[in-house]
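In the previous lecture we treated proteins in isolation. Real proteins rarely work alone, and many bind small molecules. This record shows how such a complex is specified: first the sequence, then the SMILES for S-adenosylmethionine.
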Amino acid sequence: MLLHELFDIEEDIYFVEESYLAQRTIERTLQYLNGILDVSEEQHMQLLRAREGDHTLGLLIFNPADEEVSVDFWSVFTGSLALAPLKKEFEAIANSLLISNIPEKDVEISSEKWRDAVNEYYSLMLVNRNLCPVCTFKPESYESVFSEKRVMKLTKLLDLLQKKGFYFGARLLEVCSGNGMSTLALRRLGLDPLVVEVNKCAVCQGLEQGVLDPQKVIVMDATSIFRYFDPETFDAVMGFMLGLIYEFNKELWTGIIRESVLVANKGALLLFTVNSKPEIEILTEALHRAGVEGEIIDNTDSEGIYDQWIFVGRKQRT
Ligand SMILES: C[S@@+](CC[C@H](N)C(=O)[O-])C[C@H]1O[C@@H](n2cnc3c(N)ncnc32)[C@H](O)[C@@H]1O
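The predicted 3D structure, ligand included, written as C-alpha cells:
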C-alpha cells in the first residue's frame, strides 16, 4: 500500500473514518483527535506525519497490541479531503498535537498523491471484503465480464475524437464507471481518469480483475459529486453507457449531468455515451441547460449495444 511505502512501515493501517465519503465531514477524526489532544501532554505518542509544505495532510498514531487487539497497528487521521472549515479545524488540532509530540517521520507529499493513498486504502478494504458483512458475488472470468471488442471500438472512437482536436486534459473524471470496461479504453490511450461508481460490487469486480486502479476509484453517488470535489476541478468529465434513461427517471441522469458540469473547468470537455437516441436527447438538453455547447454523434452499428449515441462538447467560458 502507498501508505506503507510512504512511511516505510509494516504494521496494519486503519483510517478512523469508515468510508471515503465520511472523509468530507470527518466527525470521528475530530472527536478522536480532540480526545487524544486532552491527554497528549501526559502520554507519549508514536506519531508519523504527512505534510504538504507546512500543511498537515495526515497523522498516523501508533496503537500497540493489547488484550483487545492482538496486533500493533497505526490509526490514520486526515482532514485533507474535508470541507474547508473542517480541514482548518483538523490542521489546528494537528498543530497543537505536534507541539508536544515530535513525529518520528515527517514526510512531504503532494495533496494529490495523498488523495491517491486514501483512495487506495478504501479500495483495498473493499476488494478484501472488509467493508461488506457477506459477499454473495461469485468470481467470473475476465472474458465473461469484459468485451474486448467493445473496448477496442471505444478506444478507437476516443482516439479519433482526440485527433479531431477534442483535448482531454490532465485531470479527468469518469462518472458511472461500472466495473471499468469503459475506463480500459481511456487507459489504453494513456489517460489516467479518477472514476466514480455507486455500485460497490461493480467497483470490487473491476478491482479484482485488475481493471480499475485502486488509487483512482471511489465508490460514490454521481448525483452528489459536487459535494466532494471543488468547483471547476476537472479538464474533462465523461460517462459511458449511461442509462437506461427514460422520461420517468431522467431526473437521476440529468442530476448527474448537472453535477458533472459543476466540477468541470470552464472550457472542459464533456463526453457522454448512451444506447439510444432518445437517451442522448435527454442528456443533451440537460447539458445545454447547464452551459455546455456541443454536438450529438450518431455512432450506431449493426450490434446496436454499446456507445451508439454520443454527446461531445465543451463547458462555455462565460
Ligand atoms: C450501463 S453501466 C455502464 C458502465 C461503464 N461506464 C461502461 O460503459 O461499461 C451504468 C453504470 O452507471 C452506474 N450508476 C447508476 N447511477 C449512478 C449514480 N447515481 N452514481 C454513480 N454511478 C451510477 C451503474 O451502477 C452502472 O454501473
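Summary for your notes: The chain has two domains: 2-109, 142-315. The two ends are 43 Å apart (CA to CA).
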